[in-house]
Write a structure and sequence with these properties.
It comes from Blastopirellula retiformator. This protein has 149 residues and is α+β, with helices and mostly antiparallel strands. It is built from one helix and ten strands, in the order H-E-E-E-E-E-E-E-E-E-E.
Amino acid sequence: MYFKQQRSSSWQVRSTLLLSALVLAVGCSRGSGENLGFVSGTVTLDGQPLSQVMVTFSPDAGGRESYGVTNAAGQYQLRYTSQDKGAKLGQHQVRISPVGVEPREPIAVEATSPVPTQYYGEDFLLYEVNPGANEIDLQLTKAPLTTSS
């Protein structure tokens, strides 16, 4: 009788350990499954760091956008998800907007924003995200952007 209880108990311990390992493997798995490039840089406006603004990278091919907020030195790092840093590989529309303002919608009164409206709303910059580390500094100016014909 003792032998059967020990054998049953040993089987229960092994089963519990195996089940725990599976739960940890599934629960702790990270990664979005996307090919991402790590993106960081500095945002400046007329040469001065621009703090507390949202940097948004929207892939031209569609899909999830990546976001980052600048610190006091104007530096940002993009996040693809809450766990994954970076942005999808390829060409992106880049918008820089005030925190709390939807990147694709300009605010009504430009004077309340530290970011000129030519960098968000319908307007954007274009940048390529490549595999590995991408240092993308965004040098903004208050002067209107000109397009070459």
